[in-house]
Structures are given as structure tokens and as C-alpha cells.
């Protein structure tokens, strides 16, 4: 059953929702534009090649990101939607980040493992930390979404996608970012440490090496990753 209100106290929320709509439209436009420009290369270099774990992770992260952006827009369109659709949109928005962060973590493990010259200790350490982070985020997301249900809101004649959620669950939803943040900081520290070590070794050996060149490629991509 939709929630209907003409209370002026909802106007700031309506304004905020409208601003966020502009943001998501720009975001989706940029994502789709990038996908359209690079799909030819993607088809040739990814879809037509032999698939591996990294291939699957790349495709999942890429298209789940596009799906997340589209769902964000659908949830904020000023059209009438059912409570069931609102619930589906909310849970999609809640669980896609958990799945994507886990897959990005696996990709980061492979890259950092390569930067540490395939150290077994580093690999075990990273796997344990990522598992702990992912499980913590998943459990917190489950608890935060207990008894949550979607609802169509009609505020001053504007249709919005909303949810019934108590204050404690809202706080816990925000805290689900903590395990992921801890993992990202750890990955940043390990990447920064090997970068410093690598540059120190380059100063001692001006001629460089093939391994050094490979590490430099990984360093450049890591810098872009952490900036984003």
C-alpha cells in the first residue's frame, strides 16, 4: 500500500532525490558511453578469448556495475511502482556492492600476489582477510535488512521508491562499509609498501629488469584503482 503525504517537511527529501537523479543519470550516461566505446575491444579481447577466472570476474564486475547504476535510476523515477518492485530494487542496491567488492577483492589479491612475486604467505594472509571482510559485510547486510520492506511513496504528488526500515538497521547498513574500508586500506598499504621497495631496488640497479617492468605496469593500474 503506497504511503501518501503532502507534508512540506518532505520537500527537502524530494529536492535531494531530484539532485541524486541528475547525478545518477550522468553516471549511467558515462558508464554506457564507456561501454559503447570499448565494447568492440572487449568482444575481441575478452569474449572471443579462452575464459579464465579473471575473465569471469571482469565481466561480472563490469555488468553488475552497469546494472547497479540502472537500478538506482529506476528506483528514483517519478513513476508509480508497486511495493514489491520497491523491495526488489532496495535489495538489489544492498547486495550488488557486497558481491562486487568481493570480486574486486579477488582481483586485488591476484595482482598484489604477483607484485610480491607470488609469495605464499602474502596469498594466505590476503585470502583470510578478504574472507573475513566479505563474511562480515554479508552478515551485517543480512541483519540490517531483516524486516525491511519496500513501499511506494507519493510525496506532494511525486512518486518515489522507499523502504520501511528502523533507525538501528539504517545505522548498521552504513556500518557495512567498515569491513570493506579496512580491506581497502590494507590493500593500499601492501601495494604502497612494494612500490617503495621496488623504487629502492631500482636506485640500486639502474639497468632495471623485466620483473621491474611488470611491477611498474601493476603500479600504474593500482594507482588508478585507489584513486577511483
Can you characterise this structure?
The chain is mainly alpha-helical and 228 residues long. The protein is built from seven helices and three strands, in the order βααααββααα. A three-stranded mixed sheet has the order 1-2-3. Strand 2 and strand 3 (158-164) form a beta hairpin. The longest helix is centred in the N-terminal third of the chain and has 37 residues, at 11-47. The chain is globular and about 70 Å long.
Quick recap of the structure?
This protein is mainly alpha-helical and 228 residues long.
Secondary-structure blueprint:
Layout: E1 3-5, H1 11-47, H2 53-74, H3 83-115, H4 120-144, E2 149-155, E3 158-164, H5 167-175, H6 177-204, H7 210-227
Helix pairs in contact: 1-2, 2-3, 3-4, 3-6, 4-5, 4-6, 6-7
Low-confidence spans: none
The number of helical elements comes to 7
Q: Work out the number of β strands.
A: 3
Q: What string gives the helices and strands in order?
A: EHHHHEEHHH
What is the strand content? 5-15%
Straight-line distance between termini = 40 Å
Q: Tell the overall outline.
A: globular
Which structural class should the secondary elements be placed in?
mainly alpha
How are strands sequenced across the largest beta sheet? 1-2-3
Taking all Cα atoms into account, the compactness measure Rg is 22 Å
Mean pLDDT: 78
Q: Quick one: biggest sheet?
A: 3 strands, mixed
Fraction of residues in helix:
over 70%
